[in-house]
Write a structure and sequence with these properties.
With 346 residues, the protein is an alpha/beta fold. It has 10 helices and 15 strands. Helix 4 links the parallel strand 9 and strand 10. The radius of gyration is 21 Å and the shape is globular.
């Protein structure tokens, strides 16, 4: 089986999904493996309850904690949390290892073992995604350095040679080949929005903002007195269009309206960041904007982004360059992992 694949792995370490990728030697196809980045702790109240819980969790993804609790991971964690009208937790928060989750690294190591086979050879190159420094919160509240050090250690322990790559830069590699690797890429993940401005294959500007899919879930949950996880499942499992209220579903109505606020917030920070930047490239032609990430898959997302961009870019004179188009990535959920894979093969 291992002989079917090229050397090099891509790994999107997202707040909501972790996605690995590797390329087949023939046919130009890519194999993706996805895992929900979530966990839920079930603590039995008696030896009998412990035994019954163990039987009830048969066939599901979990491991035992030292205090006798069951730590359910992945999609099973989401389902168990919903059963109890609670929210699942995550080992990552806003793109980095959650500082208040003592089990975070242990859970991540468990997930890595689930979605990464043994390396083809010792020290096989693995490129993984990391977030950029946010522009909407103090630098001391966001430690990507520890995040990278911890991931380097844990991935190296599996036999790989890990290398970090900016999340939005990975999207540029995945989506901008036809544009001579020039454009503006957005990764709307669960925890953050990451952005990269690329010119002829070089990442010129990187930044992030701290509102994205989780923010929409949290605000909609507060507005409807509903657990965050329930809002997340409703958002992902039911059709709705951004900007349209759903009179029969107050959760989706709230989600739809907060999506507008999220996009508007992101566009305003984009304009602010570009206008403050020094030594921007002098593009001779309009450049594309590519939207990616699970949060961007909602119906109407591209249209609303384009609308709000035109509202803020008054008379096409606000931005320091012209925009060719706003488009979605070919595979928004997997674009980061694919970009990491392409980088691993260079």
């Amino acid at each position: 089986m291992a002989g079917q694949f090229e050397s090099g792995r891509g790994l999107d370490i997202g707040t909501s999904f972790i996605i690995s990728s590797r390329a087949f030697k023939e046919g130009g196809k890519t194999q993706y493996t996805e895992f929900r980045d979530a966990f839920y702790v079930m603590k039995p109240t008696s030896p009998i309850a412990k035994k019954m819980m163990e039987k009830g969790l048969k066939g599901q993804q979990y491991f035992n904690d030292v205090d006798g609790s069951f730590i359910v991971v992945g999609q099973d964690a989401i389902e168990r949390a919903i059963e109890r009208n609670q929210s699942a937790r995550r080992p990552l928060q806003r793109g980095v290892i959650a500082p208040r989750e003592k089990q975070a690294r242990r859970i991540l190591r468990h997930i890595f073992k689930e979605i990464l086979d043994k390396p083809l050879e010792e020290g096989e190159k693995l490129v993984y995604s990391v977030p950029s420094q946010p522009v909407d919160q103090p630098a001391e509240n966001f430690d990507v350095g520890f995040h990278i050090d911890a991931l380097n250690n844990d991935l190296a322990a599996l036999g790989y040679s890990p290398q970090p790559l900016s999340e939005a830069e990975a999207i540029c590699y995945s989506e901008l080949e036809a544009d001579d690797y020039t454009g503006l890429a957005f990764s709307f993940g669960a925890g953050m929005v990451n952005v990269c401005l690329m010119s002829s294959g070089e990442g010129i500007l990187h930044w992030s903002t701290t509102r994205s899919g989780d923010w929409v879930d949290r605000m909609a949950a507060q507005a409807t007195a509903t657990p965050d996880t329930v809002v997340q499942v409703e958002k992902e499992g039911t059709k709705f269009k951004i900007g349209e209220e759903n009179t029969s579903n107050p959760i989706l109505s709230a989600v739809s309206l907060y999506y507008i606020r999220l996009i508007d917030y992101t566009v305003q920070y984009m304009i602010k960041r570009l206008l403050q930047a020094d030594n921007l490239p002098k593009f001779t032609s309009p450049i594309p904007i590519v939207l990616s990430g699970g949060t961007s898959r909602a119906q109407g997302f591209v249209e609303q982004f384009d609308r709000l961009l035109k509202e803020h870019n008054k008379d096409d004179n606000t931005l320091p360059f012209e925009i060719k188009e706003v488009r979605s990535a070919k595979d928004p959920l997997r674009a980061v992992s694919r970009g990491c894979l392409l980088a691993s093969q260079i």
